[in-house]
Amino acid sequence: MRGLRLVLSVTLALGMLVSGATTVSANDSHDPEDAIPAGPGLAELKQAIDEFRVSLVDLRDACRAEREAPSADVTTARKRLPKAEPECLKTLKALKAEFQQIRQRALDLEAAYRGDVKQKRAEAEQAAKDKEEAAKQKLADEERKQQELAKKATQTPKPKLSPADQLAKKKAQLLEQLKQVEATLAYKQGLLEQSLHAATELRAKAATLTGADRDRYLAKAAQADADAAQWSNYVKEYTARREQLVAELATLGLTTVPPAGPKPDDLAAKRATLQRTLAELNDKIAFKWSETERYAKLAVDLRSQAAAATTGELRDKLNAKAAEADMQADGWANLARQYEDQRDALQAQLDALGRT
Question: Is residue 182 situated within a structural domain?
Fold first, then answer.
């Protein structure tokens, strides 16, 4: 039994020594989670532990046989040995405890070996990646350096402008900005006029209606007023910007800003637009006067029916409808007069273009 314990201790010490000195090469490129082979000495250590376990089983059987053996000086076969713990059993318990310690040390040894292999593999993998990244970075730095050198070789310094050329360039830039600002200003002014016109027309239409219809048109007129206020702010903003550009040009010696005179093509296009708008206004005026006449005739017919009514209730109802028709006729007439005023203004613009 002592010989068995000595063999097992020597084997365990040898396994720990061999496994503790195990190293992993830096060239080992295995993934850390790949299968790890058994370390040197671990197989022999496991075999010795297995043999020790078998010996423990044999010793346990021997102790049981010794404990159950009958005493030689008894008169009956049923009499057994005293129940004091035999030396064999004490030895068995001590060896079992030692076996558990040795087995745990073997497990710790194997876990340490596997952890060391995984760590060395991970370090080798990271070292390879770092080396590859360093090589790529070095190559990229060299390429960038070559590109910068080639770019510098092809670049030629820009000629320095004379003070007169710089002044002319600055004037040209300001004049271009002024042209863009004036174009935007004209566009915003057009939108402002459209919103004001829409608000006026919507209120005139609301004047001919009652109830929910009248409220709806008044709400639309209020929205048109809000739009007009927004466009008015834009007009003020771009007007101020135009004045600023004119002042900057004046500091450069350009006191008179050349007017953006219309080209012949622009005049023709504007004339065509005005003529088309004038034709549309004439159609609207004709329609609104026709509506005025229709409602006025309806009012006359309703009053004639009221005069011939046989009951007072019917007469009052017809007269109320006649009054409503009169109101509609007046509303359409007001709209027609407003469009006639716009037509007169457009006609004046057309006449002015004809003298250009």
Answer: yes
Contacts by residues 58-66 (CB-CB < 8 Å, ≥ 24 positions apart): 59/1, 59/88, 59/91, 59/92, 59/95, 60/92, 62/88, 63/88, 63/89, 63/92
pLDDT 10s digits, 109-132: 888 888 888 898 889 889 989 999
What's the pLDDT band for 9 if we cut at 50, 70, 90? low
Alpha-carbon gap, residue 156 to 158, rounded angstroms: 6
For residue 257, give both structure tokens.
């800003």
Residues 285, 343 contacting (CB under 8 angstroms): yes
pLDDT at 317: 93
Dist. CA 29–CA 213, nearest whole Å: 84
Q: Which of 226, 257, 288 is the last residue of a domain?
A: 257
Vertex 41 angle, CA 38 and 47, to 5°: 90
Q: List the structure tokens of 181.
A: 């600002």
Q: Which residues of 233-268 are buried (b: 16+ CB within 10 A; e: fewer)?
A: ebbeebeebbeebbebbeeeeeeeeeeeeeeeeeee
56, part of any domain: yes
The domain tally of the chain equals 3
Can you say whether the dihedral through the CA atoms of 40, 45, 50, 54 is positive or negative?
Answer: positive
Q: Which long-range contacts (CB under 8 A, 24 or more apart) does 176-182 make?
A: 177/245, 178/242, 178/245, 178/246, 178/249, 178/257, 179/260, 181/238, 181/241, 181/242, 181/245, 182/242, 182/260
Where do the H-state alpha helices sit in 162-210?
163-207
Chain centre distance of CA 173: 38
**Which residue range forms the structural domain that includes residue 48?**
2-152
The CA-based dihedral angle spanning residues 170, 174, 180, 181, taken in that order and rounded to the nearest 10 degrees = 160
Using pLDDT thresholds of 50, 70 and 90, give the confidence band for residue 315. very high
Structure-token match 């003020």, residue found: 236
C-alpha triplet 29, 30, 33: angle, nearest 5°: 145
Output the six-digit token pair for 143: 């390429």
Task: State the pLDDT at residue 54.
Answer: 78
